[in-house]
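Section 5: illustrative case.
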């Protein structure tokens, strides 16, 4: 079949651009003809907290995308509509992650449906973690225009059905790029903690830092924070000084290039996701694909990815004392090797293909 994917793609950076690359590659491998239409620019400079929207990694996840769209320019929406129509797709997959894109996603979906093309919207989040008064209106405008919807956690499906009762919603776990999986798999018997990804308030790095003094009172360990700070780095540096953590915390404040991701996960013994709120986590999927156990807050869809004493540990969101206890238990009971072994033996990682299976089922092409 002929499939058009509309969403951010290389040379734009970030998890959704990586996902679009994976989705195009997987659907193409299944003998579908796939077109990708991307954005020339996602955000006006005033709204973008990072250093650059562009991916300068040596390892390029190039989806051969057509960079047509600008989020606030309807002229480019019409241009994208014409570009897709000229491809004559049987189905269109639109990526959704942020209400800011409600006007462009909702408008394009309506145009395509009126022209007789089926639209699937794949939801990486339903609502943003940092809410605004217009989120509900923009989200409803966009997602109500879909024929079918995909979420990556049951919690997101529940939230979506509260907003749009009766919609057809399929749940499929996020896949992970094989390029982010290292060839070697350590036993995870050391004491190196990893916090990975862009740092924003909802990610709960402050909760992890508050837990560290209690952990260090029991044992020596190291925390690596690898990711670009979208929140004020000074705030976290002050916490590090306040808790006397300077010799135990290493901050790598940058967008980590694609070619370095596998090595960073290989060098850790446990990933900690202290999120205050979450839908699902691409970072968790990378960890599990590397056999790296995860300690995560029990919020959103994280508890669907992280299973207690099977591939990681869970704690109540925002509770730094409980997080400290979980980290201490993980290290004192030497859980790393056993949990890592569970992950590597598990067939759950084959779920990377469930998303493409679900899309084919929606299109009526599955075996």
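Designed sequence:
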């Amino acid at each position: 079949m002929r499939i058009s994917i509309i969403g951010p793609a290389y040379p734009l950076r970030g998890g959704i651009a990586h996902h679009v690359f994976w989705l195009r590659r997987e659907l193409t491998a299944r003998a579908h003809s796939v077109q990708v239409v991307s954005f020339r620019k996602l955000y006006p400079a005033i709204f973008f907290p990072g250093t650059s929207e562009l991916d300068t990694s040596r390892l390029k996840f190039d989806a051969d995308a057509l960079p047509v769209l600008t989020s606030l320019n309807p002229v480019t929406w019409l241009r994208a509509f014409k570009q897709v129509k000229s491809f004559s797709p049987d189905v269109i997959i639109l990526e959704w992650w942020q209400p800011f894109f409600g006007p462009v996603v909702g408008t394009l979906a309506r145009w395509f449906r009126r022209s007789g093309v089926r639209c699937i919207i794949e939801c990486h989040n339903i609502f943003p973690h940092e809410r605004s008064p217009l989120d509900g209106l923009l989200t409803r405008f966009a997602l109500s225009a879909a024929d079918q919807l995909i979420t990556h956690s049951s919690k997101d499906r529940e939230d979506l059905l509260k907003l749009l009762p009766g919609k057809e919603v399929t749940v499929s776990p996020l896949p992970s790029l094989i390029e982010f999986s290292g060839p070697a798999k350590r036993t995870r018997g050391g004491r190196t903690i990893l916090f990975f990804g862009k740092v924003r308030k909802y990610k709960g790095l402050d909760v992890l830092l508050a837990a560290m003094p209690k952990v260090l009172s029991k044992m020596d360990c190291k925390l690596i924070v690898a990711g670009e700070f979208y929140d004020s780095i000074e705030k976290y540096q002050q916490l590090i000084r306040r808790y006397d953590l300077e010799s135990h915390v290493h901050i790598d404040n940058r967008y980590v290039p694609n070619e370095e991701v596998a090595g960073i996960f290989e060098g850790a013994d446990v990933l900690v996701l202290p999120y205050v709120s979450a839908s699902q986590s691409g970072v968790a999927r990378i960890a599990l694909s590397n056999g790296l156990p995860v300690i995560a807050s029990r919020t959103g869809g994280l508890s669907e990815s992280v299973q207690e004493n099977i591939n990681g540990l869970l704690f109540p969101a925002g509770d730094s004392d409980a997080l400290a206890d979980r980290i201490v238990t993980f290290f004192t009971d030497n859980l790393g090797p056993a949990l890592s072994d569970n992950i590597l033996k598990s067939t759950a990682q084959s779920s990377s293909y469930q998303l493409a299976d679900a899309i084919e089922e929606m299109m009526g092409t599955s075996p």
